[in-house]
Prior knowledge:
globular, 6-stranded mixed β-sheet, two-stranded antiparallel sheet
Amino acid sequence: MKTLLVIALASLPCAAANAQDRRISIHLYNLSGIPAHTLDQAIREVSRIFAEQDVTINWTAGAREAEEAHTTDQSGPAVTRDAPVRPFLVVRVGRGLAFKAPNGVLGVSRPHAEFGISATIFQERIEGLCQETGRDFALLLGHAIAHEIGHVALGSDAHSLTGIMRARWGKDDFDLAAMGRLGFNPQQGAEIRAYASRVASTVRPETESASAIVPR
């Protein structure tokens, strides 16, 4: 696997000294060959959204044929708030993965998966949404990834009435996203920080160093 970027937005209030103690590592699989610069923009957007909650995202790119990108284990407990957390999450983006997902759904998450896929993003649906609304693909892809990671960090498939965790986004949400203002609410932020702190406190040093990110 190869490392991707991590964003250290020092100018933002989220860049607090204890941000290093709140981090989530993600293995990212680009299954449909999204151009590197487009994926880079999407990753930056995800990192910015979580940085606003004082959480750092560490990214590692995975090979398409990797087993963890094509399987999942959801045999764990239905409630994971107090269960051991995974050292990293697995997010994949690709076409032809929607299967029976309802129309309009941009991705799915598996908050309780103990191995393999944590979240899947439906690339063709984001492309269709961009054609319909005239919005930027990388922008919507980044927000869709952040939404699904949010489900995993929150340990729930529930949605909120406002913000990035809404079930469906409308024009006002797209406008907020374009302005960098579509994010998590305070309660969600607190729960995500608690999750990231648990990850940081339980990840073994050797696992952490194996997926370390080189800032650029």
